[in-house]
Design a protein that fits this description.
Strand content: 15-25%
Largest sheet: 4 strands, antiparallel
Distance between the termini: 20 Å
Number of strands: 19
Strand order of the largest sheet: 7-8-2-18
Number of helices: 14
Structural class: alpha+beta
Helix content: 40-55%
Oligomer: single chain
Length: about 525
């Protein structure tokens, strides 16, 4: 164990050099960091919300609104299907979480049921595949259409996962580093965005559904009907923000949707310098947009964002290129925010803000300062203890191993772009405090061997060899505990567990290998007659 193998010396030298190399960027000012040569690492530790300041939101995915939207779309599907099949019906609408419709002719009840099953994607009796929608008969020639509970639960779960991805894309496009986005429970999303100084803008960017649709304006309806709220089937009355009309009556069916967009960017109108949003469709959207604008020259079409008409221009000529512009009394900031939302995609349903917290940068700086003081005090106490108990040589070797351990932990966290939180600092301090336990085990074993009358080299060798089993046993259980915390914890708990996991691995290396190489050098150079540890 005490042989100075070349591979041990090389491994310790490389690990120490890499730890120092990846830790160094955290100690340099921004100007010096930017001037480093390209081949040197520039990654630094990312500070978490509690250290850097920022905003956190707890959002709930509104599954009730998702159900309502799906049922609303299904009502139109039922209306279209029965009309195409020439089956007269009445009393179509949502009732108690489902849809009911009365078939006028009792003889067509079975035909209507089969037609709806085909149209709504549910298999006919005896067909293969699972059901997502049920079509059941009720008294008085009525049909009830509803979602299978398990199918809707699966769709709600997909909506939560989709919302997490869209929220992540929106935050990433704001240029924010290292957002922490986690799922809590069945339908909640917890978001931490370190360094975000405007929580209201963050809430608006994240919480807006951003469902963009292009719908034809119904110009045949009389103003009196519109003002009275008399809306024909298949149409809907939407409020307007264009400053021209308070509301527009539009076709409920969208001709083109925001899902067909391939790009969106802010810009300015060349004629009046007004802020606008420029967009481009994919091939399907471009073809549909070209067909609609060709067939409806001289008519208005509404650009609708989250059920509000932001613009209702007149189609002057066919738009065949698949690109266009949105005018909507935008400011530069609002045009950029809308472009961000459209690029990231629409949320499947709205998000409800359940909790909002903001941590000021000053509070974060205080936490960093307190953490640094704690680390320095802990390190100083460890230094005093080890030197007092084991002398300057063996105590000093332990402290050098501790420094190498710290460099490796910071270096690995910088290299992996891990986020350091206040619990992470606690994990770092705990790791450094526990790191000397391995040295204590080794040194005490050496003392026992010396008392038993063994030679110096044999005592040192046995100290490392016989303490290794205990060191590995303790650190493996330590590592398993940290991994369990990382797997099942969230937020601060994960930060603590990640720092602790790295620390366990580096502790075994620094306490055993670094100490062994340093003491081996000392023994070869000095050839002592007694051990200072005795």
């Amino acid at each position: 164990m005490m042989e100075l193998s070349r591979w041990k010396v090389i491994l310790v030298a490389i690990a120490t050099a890499l730890g120092l190399l990846f830790t160094l960027p955290n100690l340099l000012p921004a100007g010096a960091l930017a001037s480093l040569p390209g081949f040197l690492p520039r990654q630094t530790l990312h500070l978490g919300l509690d250290l850097q300041g920022g905003s956190s939101l707890l959002l709930e995915v509104d599954t009730n609104a998702l159900m309502t939207e799906r049922l609303t779309n299904m009502v139109e599907d039922v209306r279209t299907t029965l009309t195409q099949e020439q089956i007269p019906f009445t009393d179509l609408g949502q009732v108690n979480g489902g849809i009911q419709v009365r078939i006028a002719n009792p003889a067509q009840l079975s035909a209507a049921q089969n037609a709806l099953r085909r149209a709504l994607g549910t298999p006919l009796p005896g067909a293969a595949g699972g059901q997502e929608v049920t079509v059941a008969t009720l008294p008085d020639q009525r049909l009830r259409i509803g979602f299978v509970a398990e199918a809707f639960q699966a769709e709600a779960a997909r909506a939560v996962e989709q919302s997490i991805e869209i929220v992540r894309r929106r935050i990433d496009q704001l240029g924010t580093k290292e957002p922490d986005i986690t799922r809590q429970g069945t339908n909640r999303i917890f978001i931490q965005v370190p360094g975000e100084s405007d929580p209201e803008r963050l809430k608006n960017i994240i919480g807006q559904t951003a469902k963009l649709t292009f719908q034809m304006v119904v110009e045949s309806a009389s103003p009196e009907d519109v003002q009275a709220g008399r809306v024909p089937p298949g149409d809907e009355l939407l409020p307007s923000t264009d400053g021209i009309a308070p509301a527009y009556l539009v076709k409920r069916r969208s001709v083109v949707t925001g899902e067909m967009l391939t790009s969106a960017s802010p810009g300015y109108d060349q004629q009046n310098g007004q802020a606008i949003v420029q967009f481009r469709f994919n091939s399907l959207g471009a073809r549909r947009f070209g067909e609609i604008t060709s067939q409806n020259l001289g008519k208005k079409f509404a650009i609708v964002l989250d059920k509000k008409v932001i613009s209702a221009p007149v189609i002057q000529s066919p738009i065949m290129g698949g690109s266009g512009q949105i005018f909507g009394h935008f400011t530069t900031q609002s045009a950029n925010d809308l472009a961000v939302l459209l690029r990231a995609g629409a949320l499947p349903t709205r998000l409800i803000v359940q909790e909002q917290r903001t941590v000021g940068a000053e509070l974060g700086a205080d936490a960093v300062r307190a953490g640094a003081i704690s680390a320095i005090v802990g390190l100083a106490a460890t230094v005093v203890f080890m030197i007092a108990i084991y002398g300057f040589l063996f105590g000093g070797v332990s402290i050098i191993g501790l420094v190498v351990n710290g460099l490796m932990i910071i270096g690995i966290m910088s290299f992996t772009q891990a986020t350091l939180t206040l619990p992470g600092i606690a994990g770092l301090i705990l790791t450094l405090a526990v790191a000397v336990d391995a040295n204590v085990l080794i040194y005490e074993r050496m003392r026992d061997e010396l008392r038993a009358g063994r030679s110096l080299i044999s005592s040192m060798d046995s100290g490392f060899a016989r303490a290794m089993a205990t060191i590995m046993d303790a650190n493996i259980t330590h590592l398993l505990s940290a991994l369990i915390l990382f797997q099942f914890g969230s937020g601060p708990v994960k930060g603590f567990a990640w720092t602790l996991s790295i620390g366990v691995l580096t502790t075994v290396f620094s306490a055993v290998l670094v100490s062994q190489v340093l003491l081996g050098w000392w023994f070869r150079a000095v050839r002592p007659k007694i051990l200072p540890i005795a």
